[in-house]
Amino acid sequence: MSADIKSLAFAPGYQYDIIRRNRISLSIVAQVYLLNTSADLTGTATVNGQTQTRTASGSFLAPLPVLGPRVRCYPWHSGRLALDGSFRGMSFFGYDSFMTAQGMSDMALSRHWRVNLGYQMGTRLRIDTGTNEIGIRLTQKGPIAGFEASW
User: Which of the chain's termini has less CB crowding within 10 Å, N or C?
Assistant: First the structure.
């Protein structure tokens, strides 16, 4: 049995600052987590001396809405470097849930553009079908990178 699973995620969204001070801010973030996942499964079985190999593949694009808090602090007064942490998630009631937590550093490239580098501590997507079909449990973690624009 072998499996090859690939996942690519983009998360455009909007951030509303509840508290915004010179050194710290607390925000609510709403995003649409666009999760594009594809998988190839190959299995081999031998019964009564006969060997059969079967391959299955599939892909899906899941637009998942998420909401959660984000805390950003500026260690120096310049605003060129910021450290932040966030947690976002959403319950899909009968279909289960999606959660993500991450820590990042944001570096200013210009007045309106910032580059984000960090680590995603975990993303968990779990979908149960409620029948005997296969459900999805996808967990991701690792480095992340991105751009941020503000006006």
Answer: C
Percent of the chain with pLDDT over 70: 87
Q: Secondary structure of 35-62 in the HEC alphabet?
A: EEEEEEEEEEEEECCEEEEEEEEEEEEE
Q: Containing domain of residue 84, as a range?
A: 16-33+63-149
Place of tokens 């991450």: 102
pLDDT digits (tens, 9 = 90+) for 111-148: 899 999 999 876 666 665 566 555 666 777 888 888 88
Distance separating alpha carbons of residues 138 and 99, to the nearest angstrom: 11
Q: In degrees rounded to 5, what are phi and psi of residue 50?
A: -105, 135
In a domain, 55, yes or no: no
- DSSP bridge partners of 116: 106, 146
The CA distances from residue 18 to 33, 34, 37, 69, 111, in Å, are 22, 26, 34, 10, 21
Residue 41 lies in a domain: no
